[in-house]
Amino acid sequence: MEDKKGYTEQIEALLMADDRSEVISCKYDKKPGLESVEIVYKGGYTVRINVTANSLGAILKEVAKEVYSNGAIGTFYRGFPQDEEVPA
């Protein structure tokens, strides 16, 4: 079984070591039916990427595309969490 959480923690350490990335955290989360990686940049801008059933290599590619290129294919959220509307 792949340790996606631990692998994502290693990716986080690499991103945080690179000042150009502007990343302050990169976390893996698993809920029923959804695996995701949340990337938080300096200033609080947040991106969530769907990585459900992705291999470790595919997770790395998605994160790298998001941070260093035009964005990840599986992105399902971009914004500032404090601005999200909470349902009444």
Summed up, the helix count is: 2
- The strands making up the biggest β-sheet line up spatially as 1-2-3-4
Q: Which range does the strand content fall in?
A: 25-35%
Low-confidence stretches: none
Average residue pLDDT? 94
Overall outline: globular
Biggest beta-sheet profile: 4 strands, antiparallel
Helices and strands, in order, run as: HEEEHE
What is the SS-derived class? alpha+beta
| CA-CA gap between termini | 40 Å
- Give the radius of gyration: 13 Å
The total count of strands amounts to: 4
Helix content: 25-40%
Provide a compact summary of the structure.
By secondary structure, the chain is α+β, with helices and mostly antiparallel strands.
Describe this structure in words.
The chain is α+β, with helices and mostly antiparallel strands and 88 residues long. It is 31% helix and 31% strand. It has 2 helices and 4 strands; from the N terminus they run αβββαβ. The chain has helices at residues 4-17, 56-68, and strands spanning 23-31, 34-41, 46-50, 75-79. Strands 1-2-3-4 form a 4-stranded antiparallel sheet, covered by helices on one side. The model has no long low-confidence stretch (mean pLDDT 94).
